[in-house]
């Protein structure tokens, strides 16, 4: 079981930006779920009761089929329509890479997910409740400060001013705001 999202929803969300095979391993043995999963972009729908040798063979098949693409295709830079650009900041969701000017910014998976969530809602205030729900599938209990800590870490990595942030702003009693026009220069 996935926290907060089912496999079909996750598949639907991933498919537009993830070019690789998506295989759902599930305990739900229903024709309707099988059909819906495939229509939402899954490459395969495998039951958890499938013998390990068969599971392995099917996974290898998908990897072989996916591997038939020319190598140049996988190493080419991402096309403009997939990446988000804000001045000198470029966020590439396919390669999960962030560049600021000429520098590649190293982010953890959770930091990248947080930045992506903020950037896709650029100019909008995102409260802790929405961020926790969208990123982790959990509700905000009023005490959790993990988002605050993650925002602080993200600001540091993106050279935002810790005392007066201007790129990822705090909006008092509301949440956080990704400023889309604050990326024209690199301040280290």
Automatic annotation (TrEMBL):
One of its GO terms (molecular function) is phosphorelay response regulator activity. InterPro entries: CheY-like_superfamily, OmpR/PhoB-type_DNA-bd, Sig_transdc_resp-reg_C-effctor, Sig_transdc_resp-reg_receiver, WalR-like, WH-like_DNA-bd_sf. Residues 81-180 form the OmpR/PhoB-type domain. Keywords: Cytoplasm, DNA-binding, Phosphoprotein, Transcription, Transcription regulation, Two-component regulatory system. CDD domains: trans_reg_C. Gene3D superfamilies: 3.40.50.2300, Winged helix-like DNA-binding domain superfamily/Winged helix DNA-binding domain (1.10.10.10). Residues 1-63 form the Response regulatory domain. Residues 81-180 bind DNA. The keyword Phosphoprotein applies. Pfam families: Trans_reg_C. It is found in: Cytoplasm. One of its GO terms (biological process) is regulation of DNA-templated transcription. The keyword DNA-binding applies. The gene is rstA. One of its GO terms (cellular component) is protein-DNA complex. It comes from Serratia plymuthica. This is Transcriptional regulatory protein RstA.
């Amino acid at each position: 079981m996935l926290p907060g999202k089912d496999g079909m929803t996750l598949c639907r969300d991933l498919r537009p930006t993830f070019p690789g095979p998506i295989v759902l391993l599930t305990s739900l043995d229903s024709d309707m779920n099988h059909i819906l999963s495939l229509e939402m972009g899954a490459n395969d729908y495998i039951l958890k009761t499938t013998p390990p040798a068969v599971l392995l063979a099917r996974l290898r098949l998908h990897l072989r089929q996916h591997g038939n693409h020319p190598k140049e295709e996988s190493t080419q830079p991402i096309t403009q329509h997939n990446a988000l650009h804000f001045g000198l900041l470029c966020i590439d969701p396919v390669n999960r890479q962030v560049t600021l000017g000429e520098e590649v910014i190293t982010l953890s998976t959770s930091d990248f997910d947080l930045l992506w969530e903020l950037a896709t809602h650029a100019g909008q205030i995102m409260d802790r409740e929405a961020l926790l729900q969208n990123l982790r599938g959990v509700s905000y209990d009023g005490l959790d400060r993990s988002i605050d800590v993650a925002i602080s870490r993200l600001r540091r990595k993106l050279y935002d001013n810790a005392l007066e942030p201007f790129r990822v702003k705090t909006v008092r009693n509301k949440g956080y705001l990704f400023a889309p026009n604050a990326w024209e220069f690199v301040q280290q």
